[in-house]
Amino acid sequence: MRENDGKAQMTKRRMTCIICPTGCQLEISNADGKVKISGFQCRRGEEYGRNEMTDPRRVLTTTVRIKGGSLPLLPVRTATAIPKGLLSKAVATLADVEVEAPINTGDVIVSDFLGTGTDVIASRDMEAIAQQ
Ligand code: SF4
Fold this sequence. Notes:
This protein is of the alpha+beta class. Helix content is about 15%, strand content about 35%. The strands form three sheets. Strands 9-6-7-11-10 form a five-stranded mixed sheet, with no helix packed on it. It has a four-stranded antiparallel sheet with strand order 1-2-3-4, with helices on one face.
């Protein structure tokens, strides 16, 4: 919602905090760059709401192809949250990645992913299958 009285511009947004299962309903307003947040029950919710207004980020979880592994795909995730606007490019980029077994949980699959400073890491171990 936008309110404009000719002097100040205000943006209001409602969203559910997704940090924990409580699911607090946040109301966030931005008036001339001043962000006000209400409806949170803890600091993490306040921080989540502020970040959603200024720099929304998500941890990406997906899979990459793996050669010689016990399964054809390896679950991976970004080590930290990356800008939400990069998610489509991130998924497309990882669709071209193939690694080779064995892999251990936490192994770096792609370092400094898309220049974000965060790595893509393996979410599980993957043994190599014996070649015959
Ligand atoms: S504001 Fe705090 S208590 Fe409420 S959903 Fe977010 S993290 Fe959970």
